[in-house]
Amino acid sequence: MTTTRTEESFAILREVTAAAGLSAEGAEPIRLAENDLWRLPAGVVVRIARAGQDEAAAREVAVARWLAEYNVPAVRPIQRAQPVHASGRAATFWELLPSHRHGTEADLAPLLRQMHKLPKPMFAVGQLLPFVRVAERLTAARCVSDDDRKWLLSRLDELKEEWANLPAGLPHCVIHGDAWGGNCAVTAEGALLLDFERTSIGPPEWDLTSTAVAFDTFGTISADEYEAYSEQYGFDVRDWAGYPTLRGIRELRLVTFALQIADHDPDALEQARYRIECVRGRRGPRPWRWEAVG
Q1: What is the pTM of this model?
Q2: Is residue 222 part of a domain?
Q3: Which of 57, 64, 86, 240 lies in disulfide reach of 90, CB 3.0 to 4.6 Å?
Q4: What is the pLDDT of residues 206-233, one digit of tens each?
Q5: Same domain, residue pair 172 and 213
C-alpha cells in the first residue's frame, strides 16, 4: 500500500512529539510543503523542517528567543530544548497563535524597523548569501534555451560583481531574510513576525527590497500601499543607489525558481519564459506583473 504525503508526515510527527513528551493524537495539518506544519490540540504548532535543515531549525528557535528578549512581537517557541530529531528531520515547537489575519506591508514595516535596530546577538546567525542555488538552478534547468542560459549566467556574474561593490547604505544588522506580508500575522493584540528560516546578517535594504519589488516588478501593491510601507519604516529603499542591484538579484532568483518549477510542471513553463523575456528587456518597462508558480 502506498503511503500518502500526509501519512508520511504524521509518522514523523508521532516520533518527534513522543520525544518531546507530547501527543500527536488529534493533530491537524496546517501546511505540508517544504516544511510541514501541524497543530496539536495542546495549543502547540509543530514545524518539521525538510531533511538537512537541522542548523536552520535551531537558528529559527534562537532568533525567536532573542527577539523575545527585546520584546519584539514575534511567534514564540515553547519552553523546552529544541529542535527534536526523528527520521533525519528536525522539528521545532511553537505557541499556537490566537485568531489572526495575514499582515500587510504596512503592518510588517514597524516590526522590521524594530528588528533592524537590535544589537547583533551572541549566537551565530550567518551571513546573507543572496546567490544561493541560483547557478545550480540555471545549470540544471532543462526548459531553458542555450542562448537564454548563457545570458542569465552572464547576468549572474554581473550582479555578483555589483553585489561585491555595493555603495554605502544602512548599517548591516540581523535581517529577517523573507520579509513579505505573509510572514507577518495580525492578532487582536497587534502584528507579529513569523518564519525565521532565512534570518541572517546583512544589509537591511535586502528586507526592504522585497516590498519594493512587489511594487516595482510585480505590481501587486499600489503606490499608496508602497508609500505607507516606506513611511512606516522611515526609509524608501528605492532612493538608495544600490537598490537596482538588489532588485536585479531578487528578479534573477525568481526567474531561476520558475525554471526549476517548470522542469516538473508544464503549466509553469509559459511564466518562466515570460520572466526571462522581461529581464532580457523584451517586455517593456516594469511592472511586469509576474504570476506565482509552484
Answers
A1: 0.93
A2: yes
A3: 57
A4: 999 999 999 999 999 999 999 999 999 9
A5: yes
